[in-house]
Amino acid sequence: MKLAYALLVTLADGRFHSGTEMGERNGRTRAAVWKAIQSLQANGLEIFSVRGKGYRLAQPIELLNRGIILDGLDKRASAALNVLEVFNEIDSTNAYLLEIAKQGEATGYACLAEQQRAGRGRRGRQWVSPHGGNIYLSLLWRFTGGVSQLGGLSLAMGVALRRALSEVGLNEAQLKWPNDILVGKRKLAGILLEMTGDASGPCAVVMGIGLNVRSSPAHMLTVEQDWVDLQDLLPEAIPRNHLVSRLLSQMISVLEDFERHGFSHFQSEWNAGDAFAKQTVELHLPDRRIEGMAQGVDHSGALLLERDGKLERFHSGEVSLRGRA
Ligand code: BTN
Question: Which end of the chain lies in a sparser environment, N or C, as judged by fewer CB atoms within 10 Å?
């Protein structure tokens, strides 16, 4: 175990621990402990240092724990999940599972990380992924049919996320087409689907979820969009491992229903959670911007936009939606 992670395991209880005690426990010097504490701070953790007392996390933290997550899964998810890996640090959970997919690993492979060094967002953006209590989760799923059968899958994942949030007491989460989760128009979570395989034959999809649970503003400075985290929205901290169990259970349940029925099964649920229903929105197309009234999504997950009394359909890809004041 790397020293920084070993220290974090000790500090997770939110109490003071002296540098000497932590150094001795790990067979390292106080100077090495000090350096490791600095690296944790640089990665997003707020740690106080008080002379004569030692180090303390600003708030206790529940570290991700594979056993607790597996114990909390629904029966259906337990049966379908073949592998769950938990990392302290990784470049990107999505990138990792795409590699795993190329190596031919089975379906139902999930991974999580406390921190991502190169978290990926949609449209080639970075997903800022500091240490400190957010969720970075990816799930690999194999489909026997081609990519054409997967229209609406990313929207269906939004439905899964919304269900999981409601299970932990957050009923205000809304969906922004194609797949952001908003509360009061601020972004709480994002979903990134990446695929490998055949356009017409078997393919593997990696579904990545980034959920702001406890995000330190100092480490979110580069995030352009307005964001919010669960800590701000709920009266009590939600145990993170429980939240991951709910997320994975809902994702797997939605995937199994999606395989059987397609997106149409989720259309009305998606529309019930639409953050922009009947609002004037702006669509950014590759070559121009247009305005219209958002009228939800159709059975395939295409956005319906009303313009001059006519309903037009837009598929995701190069289209992005903005709300209007
Ligand atoms: C978005 O831009 O809204 C999508 C963000 C998706 C971020 C998640 S975090 C876990 C997974 N691994 C990544 O590198 N990205 C996704």
Answer: C
